[in-house]
Amino acid sequence: MLSKLHIENFALIDQLDMEFGEGLNVLTGATGAGKSIIFGALDLILGGRGSEEIVRTGESSCVVEATFKVIDNETIEYLRCAFDVPLDDDYIVIRREYKRKGGGRAFVGGSQVPISGLKDVSERLADILGQHSHQALLDPATHSSYLDRFADLEDQAAELKSRYHEAVRLRDELQASDRIAREISDKIDLLTFQISEIDRANFKPGEEEALKDEKKLLENSRRIREATDLAVRLLHEDEGSAVERIGEAEKSLGTIAGVSDAVKALVDSLKATSDGIREAVFGLKNLSERLDDNPGRLDEVNERLNEIARLRKKYGGGIAEIIEYGNNSQEELAKLKTRELDTDTLKRRYDDVLKEVNRLAAGISAARHEARSGLEKAVVEKLATMGIPKARFVVEITKAESVGGLYSDGDRRLAGDANGFDIVEFQFCANPGEGLKPLARIASGGEISRIMLALKNAFLRRKGSTCEVFDEIDVGISGEVAAKVARQLKELSKKHQVICITHLAQIASTADRHFRVFKSAQKGRSMTKVEVLGRDDRVREIASLISGERISQKALAGAEELLRNSSKDS
Predict the structure, then answer these.
(1) Residue 226 maps to a domain
(2) Which residues contact residue 166 at a Cβ distance below 8 angstroms, ignoring those fewer than 6 apart?
(3) How many domains does the chain have?
(4) Is residue 260 part of a domain?
(5) 322 and 208, same structural domain?
(6) 187 vs 264: CA distance, rounded Å
(7) Least confident of 286-300, 320-334, 428-442, 546-560
(8) Is pLDDT above 90 for 345?
(9) Residue 91 backbone class (left: φ over 0; alpha: ψ -120 to 50; beta: rest)
(10) Which of 177, 231, 304, 404 has its C-alpha lying 20 to 30 A from 268's C-alpha?
(11) 120 and 10 in one domain?
(12) Last residue of a domain, one of 442, 475, 495
């Protein structure tokens, strides 16, 4: 149970210390006095989300510290194992600091812990039911969790959530793996084609330049033959050709070659010139013959140049760049072929997890069907004691097919999520003769409050001693119904500590400890204060709940009567 609560610089609270007792602890006060601020501080200490607005104006941070008495051995062992903290005489201190800039810190038993860990602690030490809980009850998506809580399926449900998310992750990985495998296969096909195309071309470095030169020769073959024929005749064949005249000059100088080295050198030069002309004549004849021997060569050259131009357009640059592209493609192809995607192992892992998901979901579904009649009965019984004697409350469990669902039922694929394939929805009817309809469509605010309290009682039948916090459980009720709700809260408080914020005199009169929340102005600033009320002060506070600020004698008498009746009932 919650023993002490210390609050510093939280919203309108400067500094506040509260000591709670066993049984029913009630907080009352005028609207805007700060009751919900205390509720917010409790929510923060139990893992709720903070924000910059909760820090008191002018301060850099706020602090909330709660001391819980833990008598449940399982919870004690959990705290020791989860947070490795000792308990001092079965008391545990939880501290939450929140900074205006930079978030905050959490401590359990003096050791810093992740803020997310406070949620696990809160589920074992206290349970908060606020106005948002009423709204949550109207959302069918939350109904499976209510049923699971009643059926003690929370551990199994948590395991299913974990396995379901794992299955979704593996499915996504498998789909990504298949996609990547297809992309790699397509890339391999493309590279294989490109490499084959470049290999077939069998380009040689410098080939394009040589072909362009050859093309020019072939395109001017007639002119070249005429020019080469004339050159051959002038240089070698005609009478008085260059070779013949150089030969005569060589012969003439040969007669005096022995006269000096200079003459001999000139003779050698003439001989070399004659040899050069003969070699040039041979080349000219060879060129002319080559042009005559292959009349279709020009077409071959043009075709080859077109092939080079086509591949250069695809792969860029000239022949050297095309050859380099082919070599790089060979290396990339080798890497892709050696890359292995272990899709078979991934598929087996996915199938195994999917089987486990379906096994867990089937087990939870069976347990839900078995437990739902118990929940229906418990809620109806409690509603009868709270002014809805003819209420009908039904837990409807259905399922739906979905082609892409992860769950299966024989050959059918079922829709579902991390909570399983069951579609759980509460059906309600307050009056005889009316048909059952979804809770969200027909329940009034007062009925929702009572249904929530009935559910709470049903849950706590299967739960150890804890602290139960209610923020305005009295929404939408009054008169005789309020008295009946008060009795249910009182009954609940005999087994569990209850902290309740209320505006109803009927509930306030049943308190074992009554706190009044009020505003006090100090140094020009409003501050929320709390005081524990004695018997006389309780009479006036309850009277103010009956009649408002102007307390009448009739209201005082009514308050006295409520307190006397409460004492008799307890």
Answers:
(1) yes
(2) 353
(3) 3
(4) yes
(5) yes
(6) 73
(7) 286-300
(8) no
(9) beta
(10) 231
(11) yes
(12) 442
Residue 46 corresponds to which amino acid? L
Q: Which residues pair with 68 in a beta bridge?
A: 2, 92
Are both 438 and 373 inside the same structural domain? yes
Give the per-residue pLDDT at 341: 58
| Residue whose entry in the numeric block shows the structure tokens 């060879």 | 286
Range of the domain at 424: 139-177+343-442
| The predicted structure's pLDDT at residue 216 | 81
Question: Whole-angstrom Cα distance, residue 500 to residue 446?
Answer: 16
Q: Which residue has the higher pLDDT, 409 or 132?
A: 409
Residues 233 and 360 in one domain: no
When pLDDT is averaged across residues 252-258 and rounded to a whole number, the result is 76
Residue 411 has pLDDT above 80, yes or no: yes
pTM of the model: 0.64
Q: Does residue 554 form part of some domain?
A: no
> Does residue 149 sit in the same domain as residue 234?
no
Q: What are all long-range contacts of 103-108, with beta carbons under 8 Å and residues at least 24 apart?
A: 103/50, 104/50, 104/61, 108/79, 108/83
> Higher pLDDT residue, 41 or 521?
41
Rounded distance, CA 415 to CA 478, Å?
Answer: 43
Same domain, 209 and 328: yes
pLDDT at 50: 82
Separation between Cα atoms, residue 42 and residue 462, nearest integer Å: 24
| Sheet with strand 111-113: strands edge to edge | 13-19, 2-10, 61-69, 91-99, 103-108, 111-113
The strand ranges marked E within 406-446 are: 407-409, 412-414, 423-429, 437-438
